[in-house]
Amino acid sequence: MEEKKVLIVGGGLEGVGAALEKAEEGAKVTIVEKFPTLGAERIPRDRLIKPDDAFINPDLDKVRNDDNVSILTYSDIKKINKDNGKVQAHILKRSLRVDNSKCNDCKACIKVCPVNMFDDFDEGFSFRTAVDYFNPATGEYNIFKEDMPVCQRTCPVNLDIRTYAGQIADGKYLESLATIRDRLPLPGSIGRVCPHPCETACNRQYLDEPISICFLKRFVADVELEKEIEPVYETPEKKFSEKIAIIGAGPSGLTCAYDLARLGYEDITIYEALPVPGGYLWVGIPEYRLPKKLLQREVDLIANMGIDIQYNKRVGKDISFDDLRKDNDAVFIGAGCHRGLKLRVPGEDEYEGKGIVDCVTFLRDQALGNPIEVKGKLIVIGGGNAAIDSARVGWRMGFDEVYILYRRTKKEMPANPWEIDAAEHEGVIMQYLAAPIEILGKDGKVAGMKCIKMELGEPDASGRRRPVPIEGSEYVIDAETIVPAISQGADLEFLGEDHGFEINRWNTFDIDEETGATNVPGMFAGGDVVTGPNIAIQAVAAGKKAASGIHEYLRNK
Amino acid sequence: MNYEKEKRYIIPFDDVPSPRAEMPEITVDERRGNFVEVETGFPEDMAQTEAKRCLSCRRCLGCALCWAECKPEAINFDIPDEDLDLEFDEVVITRGQENTFQAFNTDLGYGSYADVITDLQFERMLSPTGPTDGIVVSPLDGEVPARLAIVQGNADGDEEHLLSSLVLGVNEAIIALDRTEGLEVSLISPVCQSFKDQFLADAQKVAGLNIIEGAPETAEKKKDGDSLTLTFSENGNSREENFDMVVALTKPEVSSEIKSLSRKLEQDII
Questions:
Q1: Interchain proximity B79–A144, CB inside 8 Å
Q2: Which of A229, A512, A531, B111 is deepest in the core (most CB within 10 A)?
């Protein structure tokens, strides 16, 4: 009888223990570990120790000398499938670039290596070079070359930041832009609005301050504009004829179309409910942060790849979702979250449309050129970016005074801190630790709002301290316009009844994270309609995943 | 083998420290009553300087200096990666060596004060091959601490978390006490029943270790240069004590990579 073959994922304490156990039972064991060495030398968490025996793990020597255990370090599982009780795994074992049998441990290589990077094995207590003996206890050297830098790993679309920053440093601006466009079709727009999680992760912060990555992206996009270069996005010669429909011309839909066109699909139609492209980039992000002209140009470049964008076509109204489903080989739903959520306080329903307007409608109407009437004072309620945008738009529209009411403090505000600062700087009046309790009206119109002061109590499930009302602290702000900017939700009514999709309790789609596939074959979804209100680059990433998911689905059909 | 030494922007690091580029903006007066773009973009020289600040992390630059220096000729850039296709009858998924942890009580000052560290950082510090050769020093000033607090970061964690983090905390205290003369360690955490049953009696015998059953609340410095003032509850009363260094016990987080593997194979992580 053949020996049983066992794959152990992870070469830490647990992995090494499991490997020995399985080998003892007579199995052929393979350990796959992503780091260059096994790392079983850890302080135990299941027994008390003597001072000297903490970092000694006899299992480590045992597992290294066990003929039934083969160890694949510095290796990644690239693909894995379970089929008929057997597991097929495709594993990439990276080269160490060092023949450790020849190495005499002189460390000369480390002394000359010019790379200086944050050492995550030492939990940030030290820096290391690109030549490394990852775990000094084992004495194995390697030259660390292929892994993604932390900025790239943090970026939802894994932009190759160090390459495009390097190209800017070398003065190769258009090459830099090409590097960005390889993964992101909207560099000028994202380069303006992205809250740049990459910068939060940037290793340079441990030396002084993080690199201004996002604005470098904007810089190269602007260089092209300045030089009046109109690029043409190439599509391959080999075409695929399947029909694909995309719902929503927002960042996820546009990116999905872009990637599919680059794969060779030539029959792609985007159905957009609004008269303009960009989704929330157009109707949510104000002009002073992202000029529409620039967004339009980036969309045009995508459309020029042969993608048909049909405006004023609201799925569920102008065209039925069932027809779309029938007439297309695959559908991507990137409908976004365009429904402003309610405050749920007395007076809200009574004065709806008579001075109370949700932030989504407020920003959209302004962006489409039919802003609401400007009269008196404006109160915006909420602490996210939509609240800050509404207030800064209101300030520009010319309201007498603009307030933002937020129930926690500035520290807990989810909006980007630089946006909060800008709003304050422009003269928006911030009222922290305050919440609305009633909308007040006069002659059938909004006249003000009754508020209550709050204080911070115990932390809640999110780890933020829960605001609690202070009894007897009610006060009134006079205002003619009130804009709730609490949060946004998805509007899935366009699906009709009996649609068969799995919709979760947040009223968004449940999808396969790797492919963007919903539970209905051929139907994919991504962006805010899956995640709830989220940042644009996250939607771009979802569009990319869905594009490769759709490609895989159609090619294997 | 022949490698040309390519001169790149990364060498040498003569611009540390240097501030990051500030985005130029139009003035507040220029913004009133219009929707003109506020941020005007980097001029070319600013963009270049900023781009040169990039450390190009985790990248062997291919400069071949190490290869040139290596007398035994062990370094060989041409050793290729290997692609392997293997078949198995069984898979065991473990959490691996990724040292990520769940967010914990932000009021404990981790990330704000250099002398508040995690149990994972402390573990590296205690390792004889670690960044300080196993000597306990404050990351703030390099001084050897006299009073150290090991505190529970996830005080509302489940029994399993409390048990394993308490054992780790006691073990870290045992090593630190052995290495450091005159050190006093306080371990402040809710104590679960399983720890009481299996380990508490032995842990209480460790000389220099004081186990306080309670919940840490905040760690702060009354003014710059002060030691850390730790506020915690004990038997329902709030107490304050000063420490030179605070170690927070964390709850491990499984990486999304491993989680999705576990979902895909419909198999638990051990």
A1: no
A2: A531
The closest of A77, A41, A333 to B258, measured between CA atoms, is A77
How sure is the predictor about B3, in pLDDT bands with cuts at 50, 70 and 90?
A: very low
* Nearest alpha-carbon partner for A208 in B236, B29, B61, B20: B20
Q: Which residues of B touch A52 (CB under 8 A)?
A: 178
Say how many C-beta atoms besides its own lie within 10 A of residue B230's C-beta: 24
Amino acid letter, residue A378: L
Q: How confident is the model at residue B2 (pLDDT cuts 50, 70, 90)?
A: very low
A433 alpha-carbon distance from chain centroid: 29
Phi and psi, residue B207, nearest 5°:
-70, 130
User: How many Å lie between the alpha carbon of A213 and the closest alpha carbon of chain B?
Assistant: 8
Domains (range + CATH), chain B: 1-80 (no CATH), 106-249 (3.50.50.60)
Nearest-CA distance B243 → chain A (Å): 21
**pLDDT tens figures, A47-102:** 999 888 888 778 888 998 899 999 998 899 988 988 888 999 999 998 888 888 88
> What pLDDT, on a 0 to 100 scale, did the predictor assign at position B12?
40
Q: What value does the CA radius of gyration of chain A take, rounded to a whole number of Å?
A: 28
Q: Which residues of A touch B139 (CB under 8 A)?
A: 125
Query: What is residue A135's predicted lDDT score, i.e. its pLDDT?
Result: 52
Strand A339-340 versus strand A488-489 pairing type: antiparallel
Flag whether pLDDT at A550 surpasses 60: yes
Whether B181 contacts B202, CB under 8 Å: no
CA A295 to centroid of chain Cα atoms: 20
A39 touches chain B (CB under 8 A): yes
Confidence of residue A138 (pLDDT cuts 50, 70, 90): low
